[in-house]
Amino acid sequence: xxxxxxxxxxxxxxxxxxxxxxxxxxxxxxxxxxxxxxxxxxxxxxxxxxxxxxxxxxxxxxxxxxxxxxxxxxxxxxxxxxxxxxxxxxxxxxxxxxxxxxxxxxxxxxxxxxxxxxxxxxxxxxxxxxxxxxxxxxxxxxxxxxxxxxxxxxxxxxxxxxxxxxxxxxxxxxxxxxxxxxxxxxxxxxxxxxxxxxxxxxxxxxxxxxxxxxxxxxxxxxxxxxxxxxxxxxxxxxxxxxxxxxxxxxxxxxxxxxxxxxxxxxxxxxxxxxxxxxxxxxxxxxxxxxxxxxxxxxxxxxxxxxxxxxxxxxxxxxxxxxxxxxxxxxxxxxxxxxxxxxxxxxxxxxxxxxxxxxxxxxxxxxxx
Amino acid sequence: xxxxxxxxxxxxxxxxxxxxxxxxxxxxxxxxxxxxxxxxxxxxxxxxxxxxxxxxxxxxxxxxxxxxxxxxxxxxxxxxxxxxxxxxxxxxxxxxxxxxxxxxxxxxxxxxxxxxxxxxxxxxxxxxxxxxxxxxxxxxxxxxxxxxxxxxxxxxxxxxxxxxxxxxxxxxxxxxxxxxxxxxxxxxxxxxxxxxxxxxxxxxxxxxxxxxxxxxxxxxxxxxxxxxxxxxxxxxxxxxxxxxxxxxxxxxxxxxxxxxxxx
Lengths: 368, 263
Ligand SMILES: Nc1ncnc2c1ncn2[C@@H]1O[C@H](COP(=O)(O)OP(=O)(O)OP(=O)(O)O)[C@@H](O)[C@H]1O
Ligand SMILES: [Mg+2]
Hints:
Chain A is α/β, with parallel strands linked by helices. Chain A contains 14 helices and 5 strands. Chain B folds into 2 domains: 1-82 and 158-252, P-loop containing nucleotide triphosphate hydrolases (Rossmann fold, 3-Layer(aba) Sandwich), CATH 3.40.50.300; 89-157, no CATH class. In chain B, helix 8 (222-229) packs across helix 9. The longest helix of chain B is centred in the last third of the chain and has 17 residues, at 246-262. Magnesium ion (MG) is lined by residues 47-48, 88, 164 of chain B.
């Protein structure tokens, strides 16, 4: 164990001494999240909305005034009936329609709850998401001030419907996608390069001649990258959550466990690549062209898999990130438990085992 | 060789094939404790191949081989603990300091923190590099790197050290210093197994073997070999063993030269 630890320490020294490695490991994930996040994020101001007030009482009037005076919304149109809902969206004039139910004020007083429906045009998902957030915020604020004492008992229930894009795809798509790409970059590309580097330099020969077992050498090479990948998972989730308000609907433990599985998969891919490449350049090329590009293109990160031509669609089945992104979306956005993603998890686990198996075979042959 | 010295490396009928290509063809030799054994041969003769087998890095196709008393088929781990290996390629990490490289290999060979400290002190003092221990390997001249690599290969006080062309590309003065280190190790009872392309270095060995196309064609002390082939230095021994046609060729060239001049 001590032999192993001195080896791991050396690997960390390599990483922390090389500026390029540091940038790839820590700079790129943060930069990508920020770029994607802010590119999509625009400040919400003067969003056009319509209101369908089926109640027309004092309470709805006060709430409407409060919303409109916030500065975020401009009232484009007051609707008179349900029939107008569809056309007003189709015309593209408004981003959101607010529907007060019948006898809104009365219900609130008597039953302690009343509902508002928020209809959002989610073809620009990020805007829709922000509108939703701002509106509920203002409604909550309104309730606090109007009924400061018995908040628990009196509630306005906003029900939300996203039109056109019920899952709010692209906003949340970029986080799982980036997660997958970053983990492949750090765990697969970087490990394949660092292992090949030892081969190219000739130090691998000396390591193999030492009492370290081959398995210890490989584990020693990948352990630091496993730890750094976990740091990346934490920083990506942290940024997404705190800076961009991405909700994590499902279990955080499950999420991290799935990420760890994918890290193992990427590490085993990295090891596999290193067993087939002789030089660092070769390892880099295989990782980039053979792994990163198909991962980006075929995983559903950029192009939805459902819209692909048949052959690419079936090809996407063998891309590990496709399953991983599926898992992330399910856990983060839909908030489902393990019973809904066991199939994808099984696929990733099997892939990992296959890669490890082939790597061991290749490594043995090389030693002959 | 003195009979009171024990055998450290025992090789009988070592064969190594890559597919149908025979890289080591029936090698047999013994190396004694404390001996400096020169393992000569032209490029591609099969030196590195044989050395890797002796170090437990590769399996022989057949043959009976023990190193430090351990069997290369079954006791690779024990062999590895008892030998040091300086490969043909440079083996230190450029981005680590002298001390960090030594700590790494000390750690890998299972020395305690304290032992490592002591060994680093000793080795650096011998190389007169004590005040340079925080220098990156990348900032050192090649000669120093090679001497350091040799010291690092001995950090765990192995019984046998294998050196594969340790002085490749180094200037003559540094090579001389390097051989002083080798002598010193031999005097401490360490067995040295050295390949080289420099024939002046062959003169420094206790015994040398000369490999040609995977076979050992000559094996004796440098003195005996020079007597046997009736030449003044090891370079000519090597040429006579490895390229028997070389001398006659030289004569043909010079005689045709003469003819040209006459015409
Ligand atoms: N893994 C291998 N597979 C196939 N052939 C190999 C392998 N390793 C070495 N060889 C071949 O075996 C022969 C001997 O190689 P080796 O490296 O042992 O020579 P060498 O004497 O060390 O030469 P040099 O002085 O150039 O280092 C060469 O022809 C080489 O191409
Ligand atoms: Mg060689």
